[in-house]
Amino acid sequence: MIRNFLRDRRGSYAILTVAAMVPIMGALALAIDYSEMSRQREITRNALDAAGIATARRLIEGATDDQLKAYASDFFKANLGPVKPANTTLVVTLPGNNSGGGTLKLEANLKYDPYFVPAAAALLGKGSGSNQMEFSVKSEIRLKNTLEVALVLDNSGSMSYLGSGTGQKRIDLLKAASKQLVDKMADQAAAMKQIDKPVQFGLVPFAASVNIAPDNDDQSWMDTNGLSPVHHENFDWSKMTQANMTAADIAQIGERFAEYSGGMWRKKGAGWGTAVGEPLTRFSLYQDIIAQTDREAVPNTVRRVCKRYSSGRCREYTNEPEYEYTVSQYTSWQGCVEARPAPYNTDDTTATTTKPETLFVPMFAPDEARHLWTDLDDDGIPDLNSDNWNYDNDWWADWQDTTTKPRQADMRKYFRVKPYDAAAAPDGNGPNYSCTTNPITPLTDISVTAGKDAIKKAIDDMEPSGNTNVPEGTAWGWRVVSSPAPFTGGRSESEKGNDKVIIVLTDGANTYSSFGDQSYANNRSTYAAYGYAGKGYNGTSTSRIFMGTSSSVSKSTYTSDNFQAAMDETMQTVCSNAKGVNARKIDGQGNDAVVVMTVSLDLSESKTAEKKAIDAMKACASYSRTTIGKKLYWNATGANLMQVFKEIADELSNLRIVG
């Protein structure tokens, strides 16, 4: 058929062919020009988006309006490639100063010179006017309004070691890197004049526990009435009930009794004075424990005192003047709290008295009794000076008892006055045992000098001591940026344009000191945020350190390795809850409710415990929103910690400008 068509010489075919070529060539010309125009428009759009991101960065760095517009134009033209800059115009609309971070708007108008359209127009008999084609593309960059960051920083004893590759202590390296981060973000925040509190930082120093500040002792979210099921975990008030108190007991502590009524233990008896009827709690214990702090001889008085007592009678007497003693409160609560029972130890559930297990309980480390009395005063009462004070946290004189375990929980002992010349407890011992860190610094606006200086001072004041409890530190970091109480400085979770970030750094594995199966009074561990590992509450045998963990963690193995395994699992739960169970994930990337950044310092994958800590920190981290597939985890050394915190600052900057 084609051969016949080509050999055909009749005029009708030629005429038809010529007639058909005009629309065919015109359509081809339009197709080619349309394809090229679409290509140039896409190039222009990409150049516009790139210019928008770059200009947004300059904007938060504080560039002037003229500098921003010139920078946007230069950046846009440099990325046009085959598109002629002369054929484009750029309009930059900077954010207004009325509210929020605003929106940076860029619009490019492009004139396209077609290749074939003029010829097609001539074939179609059109005029010779301008055949340029015009189109526009737009790009908007929504500037993040606000950023809230909690620095959750390890203050355990190992932070006093020298950082690898340096001659400085890890804690000092951390202070320098953290303050550098605050300074960089403060400079960006100060440039955003139109935003209220554009960048806020909080600080959570953690070790074996977390300090939420002693002036919070009267807050509604604290357990001020002893309602929480863990509040009396280590206390036995029944020894002080009126029915159980003997005449000898009353002779030593007076008519002060305990009574359970109205769902709480209360003060009963004439010995309490105006405080009768008030709750018996850890807070009241801190107030009621009294020591003789000073003494003064009473002139012209003599008292015959037994100096040496043995074999049932006094062997040597001496004469002393009578003394007047000054008594005062032995110590006060320093601000550390225990972990709430699962599942509330891993979330930011608002504390309420209608659900007592959500209330926060002050730490109170019991006096860990060890020895029975061996010496008696000449009146037959146990000598408060005779206790040898050499147990792990033996800080008070015990009540006389023939068995060991009840003596630790016997509350009668705390209501005797500690004598003036009694041996002092070892440094760090007492009811505040394991409370070694400074208080949390709530979210503070670092765009103002006072706020920036406050955070930096709190960083400078950090001192290393104690064990490592990363999950408890992380949980409190979340509560700092969260909007509900205890700390209410965070914006509402539903507010748009606001990012909440937790930055967690540790230099070691989770640690809870073990005493094994032979520990005194079934404690099986030192006392810290989870109480004693060997004790449960409300009659349960499972302690809080194991509650909420999977079957892979033994609930009856009291070793450091098993404690670490339990705490590592708890840490994953905290991070998962903070990030949000229903967070949107696309190809391993998503917008977590709270962005979690983690840093391990001077840890080696060749060491089993440290490898577990690295894996736990890596698993907790969020994915970057700007770099596909990148986990926000860094394994830092002392030598490169400063650089790591610079990279963290870049990620925080990205959060502020990427919608």
From TrEMBL:
Q: Could you tell me the keywords of this UniProt record? A: Membrane, Transmembrane, Transmembrane helix
One Pfam match, given by its short name, reads: Tad
Q: Which residues form the Putative Flp pilus-assembly TadG-like N-terminal domain?
A: 11-57
InterPro entries attached to this UniProt entry: Tad_N (IPR028087), vWFA_dom_sf (IPR036465)
Entry-linked SUPFAM superfamilies? vWA-like
Spell out where the chain crosses the membrane. 12-32
This chain belongs to which protein, by name?
A: Flp pilus assembly protein TadG
**Which organism is this protein's natural source?**
Aminobacter ciceronei
